[in-house]
Specification:
Distance between the termini: 26 Å
Order of helices and strands: EHEHEHEEHEEHEHEHHEEH
Low-confidence stretches: none
Mean pLDDT: 94
CATH class: Alpha Beta
Number of domains: 1
CATH architecture: Alpha-Beta Complex
Helix content: 25-40%
Strand content: 15-25%
Largest sheet: 7 strands, mixed
CATH topology: Spore Coat Polysaccharide Biosynthesis Protein SpsA, Chain A
CATH superfamily: Spore Coat Polysaccharide Biosynthesis Protein SpsA, Chain A
Length: about 260
């Protein structure tokens, strides 16, 4: 399968550079890298344009105007610009283990989406990392939170697999799904703006459509760089949209990828 790697981005070009370098080191290279840019400033756009000319990666820059946090719409636009059979989603502030994409592809199964975990890096260590030119994290890296998520035992998940149809722990910073399944539920809900619940609402429709969840443990490892949290002011409205999706067993949102 051809893999399209979708990276959600808003400014912070230094962090994005570390992400792209970790993609270049992958054991299995994605067919394309689509940067879902939610209105970044000129500095970030200039960085992306320059990087495209110095890498062997096929990079597609999907841009939308800055009108606040609109990650759902940005991801949908990026998917429309992609052509891969399999979609892997990450954020623009995570450094990937060298087998990250390989793990997602090996564990993929039609009728399932894959939910991975992340290792959190402290503010102090993140600042030191951004001042250096190379970062190759591992279990021994200093100041890691939930360090156990950095243990790499790729065959263990097959032995301890348990069915999980909950919304707890849903994060599309480490997430993958077949393209056909993504379109089946009309992608992310463009009506969800501001931080929060866009991931859970998307997954609730997957559940309602009969798609199952598979958690990735001890593989598909990523290291999340520290940043300030986003405003939660939109949570009340977004919670209402999520509740409607659950209560009415909605399988396809009214305003999703097919409406762009």
């Amino acid at each position: 399968m051809k893999v399209s790697l979708i990276i959600t981005v808003y400014n912070r070009p230094k962090e994005l550079e570390l992400v792209l370098k970790s993609i270049e080191r992958q054991s299995y290279q994605p067919y394309e890298v689509v940067i879902a840019d939610d209105g970044s400033n000129f500095d970030t756009q200039k960085f992306i344009n320059n990087y495209c000319h110095q890498t062997s990666l096929k990079i597609i820059h999907s841009y939308q105007d800055d009108k606040g946090f609109r990650a759902s719409r940005s991801r949908n636009k990026a998917v429309l610009k992609s052509s891969g059979d399999y979609l892997v989603f990450i954020d623009g502030d995570v450094v990937l283990h060298k087998r990250f994409i390989e793990d997602h592809l090996k564990k993929s199964k039609f009728g399932y989406f894959l939910q991975g975990k992340r290792v959190l890096i402290s503010k102090t260590t993140t600042q030191k990392i951004l001042e250096s030119e190379f970062f190759n994290p591992n279990f021994l890296t200093r100041d890691l939170k939930n360090r156990h998520n950095s243990i790499y035992l790729p065959y263990l998940p097959d032995l301890i697999y348990r069915s999980n149809q909950k919304l707890n722990g849903i994060k599309t910073c480490n997430f993958s799904i077949h393209r056909e399944t993504y379109f089946k539920v009309n992608g992310f809900n463009n009506d969800i703006e501001g931080w929060g619940r866009e991931d859970s609402e998307f997954v609730s429709r997957l559940y309602n459509s009969g798609v199952k969840r598979r958690d990735l443990r001890f593989c598909a490892i990523q290291y999340h760089l520290f940043h300030r949290e986003y405003s939660r002011k939109s949570l009340r409205l977004n919670d209402k949209i999520l509740k409607e999706s659950i209560d009415l067993s909605i399988t396809s949102c009214r305003n999703g990828i097919n409406q762009l």
